[in-house]
Design brief:
single chain, about 230 residues, alpha/beta, Alpha/beta knot, 9 helices, about 15% strand, globular
Length: about 230
């Protein structure tokens, strides 16, 4: 769908929501970013999967890339609490090993790959440079990121820890990492905000989730306007 059609459809949908919801959409969009994205490799516990979606929404991370090799990514409605409606989830499950497909795509889109790892030579999450678009990769609950991720990674990153326990739960790790990186990003001079075209596309997706019977209204829109708006 071209941009003009998306904009026209947005105008069509906003007639069905309150002024408060319109304002809220714009407030949230102003803090959304694709500059930082999250990648999950083979996360299988629904509670963790759902908590990370909520964390992405809360911190304004729009894109979540989900690699499904051995494990199916399942959400728990009691935990996700509707946040999946606001985050763009990109799933990779076509091949026997989908990690390469995901990371290659991110590299092609100029993302630097950071793999979370408790290794002694990992960079502290607090010291991560924000000069480039960044994809932060979290691995499965028991074994962490795969060797393939480590091979593709530009750097390994870790959260400073000072106790006997050697690792955080993956959903806690995601929350701590995003809190550190988003805080630093907002305080930087980096142009991390969405473009107007990106806002239009996301705004349309959100309106489809907000408007009751959105499918019916969209079908009616195209029946009435489809010949003049391609």
């Amino acid at each position: 769908m071209n941009l003009a059609t998306q904009q026209a459809l947005v105008e069509h949908f906003v007639a069905f929501i309150s002024d408060h919801k319109k304002s809220r959409i714009e407030e949230v969009l102003d803090f959304r970013t694709k500059y930082l994205t999250v990648v999950l490799e083979d996360i299988y516990q629904p509670q963790n999967a759902s908590a990370i979606v909520r964390t992405c929404d809360i911190f304004g991370v729009q894109d979540l890339h989900i690699i499904e090799n051995s494990n199916y990514y399942e959400l728990n409605p009691e935990v996700v609490k509707g946040s999946s409606k606001w985050v763009s989830m990109h799933r990779y499950n076509t091949y026997e090993n989908n990690t390469v497909e995901c990371l290659e795509k991110l590299k092609q889109n100029n993302y630097r790959i950071l793999a979370t790892s408790p290794s002694a030579d990992s960079l502290s999450i607090n010291d991560v440079s924000l000069d480039d678009k960044t994809a932060l990769v979290f691995g499965t609950e028991h074994t962490g990121v795969s060797d393939i991720v480590k091979d593709y990674a530009d750097d390994l990153v870790t959260i400073p820890m000072f106790g006997f326990t050697e690792s955080f739960n993956v959903s806690v790790s995601a929350a701590l990492c995003l809190n550190a990186m988003i805080t630093n990003l907002h305080q930087s001079e980096v142009d991390w905000k969405l473009s107007e075209d990106e806002k239009t596309s996301i705004r349309l997706d959100w309106l489809r989730n907000i408007v009751v019977n959105a499918d019916m209204y969209e079908k009616r829109f195209f029946e009435q306007e489809g010949k003049t708006i391609g």
